[in-house]
Write a structure and sequence with these properties.
single chain; 323 residues; 9 helices; 15 strands; 30% helix; 30% strand
């Protein structure tokens, strides 16, 4: 197990691991980097077989970002190896942090300095179950903080004409929207960054107070010209940049992750039009499925209006040492 702190120099290692073992929507190097916080250190944890954990760390906690980048039989095993290492006996342990890419001399931290009180995890149902079944007695999993629901649309069954009684309201809203507005879709990299920056700000201000809303990641995508995405498209209504759709092909699959779908609430039914455009575009692009990102129950209920989808769950919780 090796720790790398220079993420840009370690990019080839991350991409090699994702190329071999990636499967989760957020197994994307740039998304991992953009999702970090200024007060946390971004650290790649890599294992001898090429498996990896994408992590962030502050003085008191480690965050494991997304699922382990590993084969199914190794996911719980590398999590336990990591948890034992960073949550073990502080008098016995020493964390080595590689300051540069593979082969660099390690930067060592004094014994105990790399140890923290807890490790935060977000795991899919199967991975969490296997981890809990193998968790050593000196570690304990805390209660689930919250659960995210992830709808995955079957694009082979998505009807772009929205025929039938089930889709009558959605079909009428779409027809009315395009009748009343002039709509253009352009590559977001060709659109003014100033116009794009306004969308996350307005979107955040319109969310409910109970929503967990963070815009730094979206700002990072805009500033870096959507590096890491397969597609990034600006939804322009009557000459006004009103929405963004962006995402990427999930590694080793024919599923697309619709990571970004933001709009500024400037027109009635804008959200419906934005999502319908994305689904139609992805179907035409040849993807078989579209993962429309994790959310809590109310948001997922809204997404299900767009068609048949299966839903899977991810659980946010932490692991700590037993006292």
């Amino acid at each position: 197990m090796e720790f790398y702190t220079d993420i840009e120099k370690s990019r080839p290692l991350i991409e090699e691991s994702i190329g071999r073992f990636g499967y989760a929507p957020e197994h994307n190097t740039d998304h991992y980097i953009y999702s970090g916080a200024d007060y946390k250190e971004t650290i790649l944890v890599r294992f001898e077989d090429g498996s990896a954990l994408l992590t962030h760390r502050d003085p008191k906690t480690w965050d494991v970002f997304s699922e382990p980048v590993a084969s199914p039989e190794r996911r719980a095993a590398i999590l336990i190896e990591f948890l034992q290492y960073v949550l073990g006996d502080a008098s016995q342990k020493k964390v080595e942090l590689h300051a540069q890419s593979h082969g660099a001399e390690p930067r060592t931290v004094p014994p105990g300095a790399g140890l923290v009180r807890r490790v935060n995890l977000e795991l899919h149902e199967r991975t969490r179950r296997e981890l809990l079944g193998a968790l050593p007695k000196n570690l304990r999993a805390r209660s689930i903080n919250y659960t995210l629901l992830w709808p995955v649309f079957d694009l082979t069954k998505f009807d772009t004409f929205l025929a039938g009684g089930r889709y009558k309201d959605l079909r009428n809203a779409k027809v009315k929207f395009y009748r009343e507005h002039r709509v253009e879709v352009r590559d977001a990299r060709e659109v003014s960054k100033e116009a794009l920056r306004a969308i996350p700000k307005v979107w955040k201000s319109m969310r409910r107070a109970s929503d967990r809303v963070y815009t730094a990641m979206y700002d990072a995508y805009i500033e870096n010209d959507f590096r890491g995405t397969t597609y990034a498209r600006a939804f322009i209504v009557d000459g006004h940049v009103a929405g963004i759709n962006a995402g990427w092909a999930i590694p080793n699959s024919t599923t697309y992750y619709a990571a970004i779908g933001l709009h500024d609430y400037s027109s009635k039914d804008l959200g419906d039009a934005l999502n319908l455009e994305d689904l139609a575009f992805l179907k035409a692009a040849g993807f078989t499925h579209a993962d429309f990102a994790g959310g809590e129950k109310a948001l997922t209920t809204y997404k299900l209006k767009f068609g048949e989808a299966r839903i899977y769950k991810s659980f946010i919780f932490s692991v700590a040492r037993r006292q």
